[in-house]
Give the backbone structure.
Amino acid sequence: MSTAATVYRSDILGEEVHRYVLPSGLRVLVHPKPGYLKKFAVLSANYGSVDSRFVDPETGELRDMPAGIAHFLEHKLFELKEGDAFDAFSRQGASGNAATSFRTTSFFFSCSEYFAKNLRTLVSLVTSASFTAAAVEKERGIIEQEIRMYEDNPDWRIFMNLVEGLYRDHPVRIDITGSKESIARIRYQDLLSCHRWFYHPENLCLVVCGDLDSERIVATVHRALGAGRNEGAAERIDIDEPRRVLRNRIDVELPVVRSRLLIGFKDPWVPVHGRDHQRRDLVTAILLDLMFGSSSHTWQRLYEEDVIDDSFYATYAGEEDFGFVTLGGEVDEPDRVRRRLMREIRKFGKKGFSAEDFGRVVHKMIGRFVGGLDSTEGTAFMLLSSEFRGVDPFVIPTLLRTITRDEIMERHARLFGDRNHCTSIGRKGKGRSRLV
Amino acid sequence: MPELSPERNLVEFELPGAVRLFVYRTEKFKTSFVNIILGRPLDERTSCAALLPYVLRRGTTSHRDMSSIARLLESLFGASLDVDILSFGERQMLSFRLDLVEERYLFMGGRDLLAKGLDLVRELFLEPVLDGGCFPNETFEQERENLRRFVAGMVNDKGRYAFDRCVSRMCEGEPYARYEYGALPEIDALTSESLTELWHDTLRSAPIDVFVVGSTDPGRVRDLVVGAFGGLRSGEEVTDPPPAVRRGPGKLTRVVERDDVMQARLVMGFRTRIGYGDPLSIPLVVWNTVFGGGASSRLFRHVREKHSLAYYCSSSVDQSKGVAFVQAGVDGTQAGRVERIVRRQMGDLARNGPTLDEVRAAKAYLKAGVLSITDSAPRIAGFFLERRSTGAVIGIGELLDRISRVRRADVARAAATVKPDTYYLLARGDE
């Protein structure tokens, strides 16, 4: 079999990535890491918690699935005909796991030996839904305990409150694991249908990192997968999400020692694709670093005045059809800190930043990109994200150097200019936990 | 297979003033990694020592505040300097970690990053901003408040909190019970003077281990480290303290604490009395893998997969102290059932040993973990630090060999040493 590879290359970094598209439509990215003893593979479906509403390819009708179904399916795919995939990996000297995000469901393993065997196990678990109806019932108890665990996490709770406040219709507002009530409504047949509609080869991508031969990997995967089938894929629907946030404020009491504050800014720059997507995210990262990074004068002032501490962060979550900035942390007086942060945001819009600050932050981001390549897992997930965006991963350092100061200020105006934000507070209160 | 004896890449130097330097030379990575560790006992000054790195990172005479330090690091192409408090057995470790991009991978030049990074750490240690010979009161107060908040906030991480509570009850009166970040009443009693005194004492007498992983020639690294820290010591001998006392278990203690939790947390504490040098050391690690070490372990299969009682249920061993733990997040009303399943599996492993398949899988899993050490600079440094701290100086090749020689009967013998000590449950009042 011959499937010509596209090669992404960076001469200065001495790195290359081979990209293949198999006859089944599966995309395979191989990142050779000579001298590394560990091998890592991740097979990811372009299907996550946001894909709960779609057009049923069999009936043509609009379907709404219970919240948490993508995550439930992730759990159940570990069941193989011949036993449990966890056991299979373990017998073959690998450790496997999986994770569901808003956008994707990823299955992965790492090992030093028996790579081909483990790879076949991975392909088999993702592409064949072998679980039984009885096993679905048993899984509810396990997932319910997982949900309870997250419910005890105050930071996750105020984060989800924030996202619910930012979005009216977009399913990003639905908790990835769902709730006890929603997972009770997930039926065996729903899981099988979602697997059929979303786990077809064209909707999957495999990334492999390690001291490995690309051609042999491609041959192994092709043999394991065969022609595959892509007909009957579900159709995503466009979501008519309003530009404005749904709510300006969500304020709850939590059993915490210290209050939590998060401010979210809903990004109007959606939808976005390919290189624009990559650029949007990099420009935003530079902007947030200039505004609130630990080298900024603002950060230093706020830290010295005890407005913020090490728990403070400012970050951006950006996908094709949604994006938002989150900033905040643990605070004593949420309302006072909120007003103060808003003032700093306005001030930045007027005063801007120096050329020196800008150059330094860009240098830092290039350095961090280079350093990130030392981690096989980190690199694999970076490659997945660039593949789903359709960009060359090594374009990032080049893109960083072409970003202009005007772009940064325009981005500031667009993100923060029209006061399109929501505040989520978790106030220290009822059922307060004891101190150590 | 490449690099199966990574010890060959390791060069060890005893520097003036009892600074120990370990240089692991490799061109495998795009970053170089430096970890400087000041070791001291877990004792009544632990809270004070936990504060020290956070006050030191506030500024030096030439970089007077944190953002000025951050700007310097950024100009070194996104170098990072992280301080942390770790513990190992009954030792507290103040860790300063530098990550620097290797110069040959930089797009637009960049020179002497390692020298500049080490010089910054030297400044942090030796030239902090002082006011009348002491740390400025304002800085001190603020960092003390931050530490106080951090320690008080631990209660909001329920799994971690339950674990710490179990350890502190189980090892009451032993240094091991101390949390490496300190305790509230002690933190409240600190003064800027006591911290300044501890700073002087630490620089004078704490053992300093420096690990460097990267492509720089070891002789050059030695010169840089001597240049940075050579003047630190008068050359007095620094000795490591004796290993932790390994007390046997007494009667089983049960502790139940009430908290407003959605999920109850069960932590079962055991004594093994097996330390790093013990012949059963490696069999105990294999036992832990079979029993509760991963997704194909007995605990995972029985508590989670068979009975759907938990999302996580796992075991761990700490050979620096001779203890083991089982941790699970469960429905409070089912905690007794979970405990019975854990005890049944434990008894079965001690009586009958693991199956041949279980031992095979556990060995393969451990082997993969050991091999991958050489793929990560922090793990390389961690491996040699652990070996250093325990006196059990064996290399990766020998470790692999010892794992491969473990038999079912050895695992059963190791399992039989694991004795219940303290069972702890954190649950809602109505459960």
Observations:
- Chain B has a mean pLDDT of 91.
- Chain B touches chain A through 77 residues (CB under 8 Å).
- Chain B is about 45% helix and 20% strand.
